[in-house]
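hey so i finally got around to running the thing on that chain from the lab meeting. sorry it took forever, my laptop kept dying and i had to restart like 3 times. anyway pasting the input first so we r on the same page abt which one it is
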Amino acid sequence: MRSSDPGDVKAAVQRQFGAVAANYGASRVHAGGPDLEALVGRALARSARTVLDVGCGAGHTALALAARGLDVIALDLTEPMLVQGRGLARARGLSLAFQQGDVEALPFPDASFDLVTSRYSAHHYAHPKRAVAEIARVLRPGGALLLVDIVSTSDPAADSFLQTIELVRDPSHVRDHSVEEWAGMFGAAGLRARAPLSWPCEIDFDAWIQRMATPETEEKVLRRLLEGAPNVARDFLRIGTPGPYDFCLTTALIEAER
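ok and heres what got predicted. didnt touch it at all, straight out
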């Protein structure tokens, strides 16, 4: 059973991602894709200048924004991830700040940023409502949050299956929320959400577990789960569908304005 102590969750995130930081520095999923292109496009369309990228990981989103001339602070809980980001920034000749910190207690004054971004990290937030409230606090009036993450479904069986395979692969996983759940949290924090964009996130099973360094025992469990998935989960994850992937997750970009 997962501990309800947020400190335990955050310690698990640091252990898990500290050990595999280099894998995320080299990850093609995180380094590019239509979701990153759309996020950068929305940032530029908003004429944002100051950006906070929370849960920055190895820094791919922050680097893409800095490369377009934005003033970016990249924040993550895990120092080895920040080391990866600083190295990538040096290699590309980009200037941006990498800072250790917690999205649930942001070390910045109110109304500090035009834009906050979060990409493939929000499913690790121990208290997502608190994180969203902190993001809303540091946004200037008229500023926006651009959140990209794997999203779930309103179907209980498919949702349970998704959360199970995510947790078996990664013990620091908390929850893939649905678009509706995120919209509710944004509204409670005073943010107005736009209709989301979404894309299939094609998963190669071997690369998926290697990136997280999933142990062999858990790998076998995951293979059995996917092979025996109920029909509702098979449909949602496109398991067994012909194509150059083993299954598909769903990535969404949700824009929410203060």
